[in-house]
Design brief:
Elements (H helix, E strand, L loop, with lengths): L12 E4 L1 E2 L18 E2 L2 H11 L8 E5 L8 H14 L5 E5 L2 H5 L3 H9 L2 E9 L3 H6 L6 H13 L3 E8 L7 H15 L3 E6 L7 H7 L8 H12 L8 E5 L8 E5 L3 H13 L15
Parallel strand pairs: 1-4, 4-5, 5-6, 6-7, 7-8, 8-9
Antiparallel strand pairs: 2-3, 9-10
Helix pairs in contact: 2-4, 6-7, 7-9, 9-10
Bound molecules: iron/sulfur cluster.
Length: 288
């Protein structure tokens, strides 16, 4: 512990195949600070599978935790996936987080083998499309590498769900964060986009920077303005589900792109111009 999963995996069986995150260096992220990354040994994983498989009925979804299951050797992942579909007869999909470096570390042929073994959807934290912001927050990849990682996942046949963070550039780079992030998403064409709102937690380097006055957090309306700049620039050619319903968000939003883009951007423009007409989530109710 602690254990993290995407909101959409609330009803999934969670199987830890790694502990922590293989990167564990992003300045805004405190998720795995207390864990030293390692791939769990097969006997440990097998023990968990056997325990869960004693009650296999109704297990339709499995999420492979922690940070990035793609850090596993391809053959081990193939064997693991085969074992899961064998042990849980109702299983329909297996998903996991994917770090961009781990995606880039596998060949297209390996990724296709993993996909064919039954890992169906990958969650990729894009965070920002700005080169300078990605460097500042120590994401470990450039925007081009991030696009390549996402494209490779799509080409291998995975469904791709990405998250971006409004406010990650602070007040100085708010427009840049929106414009460059839209460009990366347009190049990547993910199936799902989740927009989260930056909420620095005390165990992070970004929080310390903010406390020293070196990083200016956006206020709620500035965040929504940035979200508007982002949404109005999204150009999705295929159906993409856009969600802004994370605990960190000030205003829940959901739509299908491209058809709902202008409606979403119009709503955000109205919120920014007429905030008194809307009830934004109070700070006390925002959590991670
Ligand atoms: S944001 Fe993702 S890649 Fe970065 S440290 Fe956190 S879990 Fe690891």
């Amino acid at each position: 512990m602690p254990l993290f999963r995407p909101p959409s995996e609330a009803f999934s069986l969670i199987l830890q195949v790694t502990l922590g995150c293989s990167h564990n260096a992003c300045t805004f992220c405190g998720m795995y600070k207390m864990k030293k990354f390692r791939v769990r040994e097969w006997p440990e994983i097998e023990k968990d599978i056997n325990e869960a498989a004693a009650f296999p009925e109704g297990v339709e979804r499995i999420f492979l935790a922690d940070g990035n299951a793609l850090a596993l050797e391809t053959e081990m992942l193939e064997n693991l996936l085969g074992r899961l579909y064998q042990s849980f007869p109702d299983l329909k999909r297996v998903t996991s987080y994917a770090g961009p470096r781990d995606l880039l570390g596998k060949s297209l042929e390996e990724l296709k083998r993993i996909r064919e073994s039954g890992l169906k959807l990958l969650y990729l934290g894009v965070e920002s499309g700005s080169a300078s912001i990605l460097e500042e927050v120590n994401k470990g990849v450039s925007p081009d590498e991030m696009v390549e990682a996402g494209r490779r996942a799509k080409e291998a046949g995975f469904e791709l769900s990405v998250t971006v963070l409004t406010g990650l550039g602070g007040k100085d780079k708010s427009l840049e964060n929106a414009v460059d992030t839209a460009a990366v998403l347009n190049s990547m064409q993910p199936d799902y986009v989740g927009a989260l709102t930056l909420t620095p937690t005390p165990n992070t380097a970004l929080y310390s920077k903010m406390k020293k006055g070196e990083f200016q957090l956006l206020d709620p309306l500035e965040n929504l303005q940035e979200l508007k700049w982002l949404v109005e620039r999204l150009d999705m050619s295929e159906s993409c589900l856009f969600r802004c319903n994370h605990a960190s968000n000030y205003l829940p939003l959901r739509g299908t792109l491209p058809q709902d883009r202008d409606k979403l951007a119009g709503l955000l423009a109205d919120v920014v111009e007429n905030p008194n007409r809307y009830r934004l989530k109070p700070e006390s109710m925002r959590g991670l």
